[in-house]
Amino acid sequence: MDSPAFDYGKLYSDGLPDPAGKWAPFPPYYFIGGNNDPEQVPVEGLIEAATTVLRREGSKLAIYNLGLGPQGYPGLRQFVADRANRLRGFSVGIDDVMITTGSGQGLDMIARLLISPGDTILCEEFSYQSAINRYRKLGANVEGMTLDGDGIVIEALAAQLAALKAKGITPKFIYTIPTIQNPTATIMPLDRRLALIKLAHEYNVAIFEDECYADLLWEGVEAPPALYALDPSCVIHIGSFSKSLAPALRLGYVIAGWEIMRRLLPLKGDSGTGALDQMVVAEYFSKHFDSHLKHLNGVLHDKLKAMVEAVEREFGASAEMWAPKGGIFLWIKLPDGIDTRKLLKPAAERGIIFNEGPAWAVSPDNSTSHLRLCFAMPDKKTIADGVAAFAQVCYEQTGIPVRSANVQRG
């Protein structure tokens, strides 16, 4: 006698995301995600580093966290502290650093530490999609802060905080990406950083600083000291090795004073971030960080130039581009009236994947005509061909860009 089919559908918890489909290969023109250039992963250097650390310390892999505690491998924590002190103006030691499983784990832990349902959080009006979604899932009310080419507009933020105070609302924290903002790739100047910290003290609002792209600066571009360096009393800082080395290694970090760190550590319930990954990155970057970044940033800058040229060639005056000062993304505005969400399906049918603006904004109302393109992973020919294919899709769906404004192709 056959048993009835077992029905898991009656057992799933409430609030689950939609089920996933089977993984498919990347389409020809894949302009999303934080992937990097596969040719720039220093494979031989990582092999050498792995061999060195396994011979020296491989036996420690028998113990969770290498027997060295949940904050992470001391060699990598020391590298993070030294790099932050040398390049970002910090004055921190190893005890101020915790290694995380990508910056996403840091986002989760800090959100859990600070957010209760009903709290208000301030994010830049265009911001990291995953952060906005995390805060909303925890029941936070997310409000957008006005941006321009230099990041947060301080005068608008001051008025916003005053208006919230008049309603009896004190935001829990300001989430900001001040150095190579995602998606706009701007850098907040020093005067605005100091003014932002002054507002944080005036209204007792913490600052959550995300510097995951701060290593990816074009030659000749300098960034002011990190917000944490300017005032560690009101700032929690996170960073990542995903963009500077390899996303699949899943390594990030939190920098915070001990009073915050001791509250974060109990939230790191993963039995430890991958120890071998930490050991290898510490070994490689302790010797090759500066040379690797100089080369990588040169490659990325060349790819950006290729993408900007392709957008100018294919879209003409129909596309307004923010001017990236580093990073891996180009943030573009098409004419008002175009809803980039409506281009997703027809573009995907041509093998083109891009990020629609509303997914990277606190409110879709001011971002429907925007889109984000990642230029790091594809080569220059793919960038040129993909932008041309996308322009054709856009023209077929919206009549823009007007073909007479473009270079004619046979």
Topology:
Blueprint (H helix, E strand, L loop, with lengths): L28 E2 L12 H15 L16 H14 L9 E4 L1 H13 L5 E5 L4 H9 L3 E5 L1 E2 L2 E2 L1 H13 L6 E4 L13 H14 L2 E5 L16 H4 L4 E6 L11 E4 L2 H7 L10 H41 L4 E2 L7 E5 L10 H6 L2 E2 L1 E2 L13 E5 L5 H19 L12
Summarize this entry quickly.
By secondary structure, the protein is an alpha/beta fold. The protein folds into 2 domains: 25-41 and 291-405, Aspartate Aminotransferase, domain 1, CATH 3.90.1150.10; 43-288, 3-Layer(aba) Sandwich (Aspartate Aminotransferase, domain 2).
Which secondary-structure class do the elements indicate? alpha/beta
CATH-wise, what's the superfamily of the largest domain? Type I PLP-dependent aspartate aminotransferase-like (Major domain)
Residue ranges: pLDDT <50 for 5 or more in a row?
A: 405-410
Q: Strand tally, please?
A: 15
Counted by DSSP, the helix tally is 11
CATH class of the largest domain: Alpha Beta
Domain module count: 2
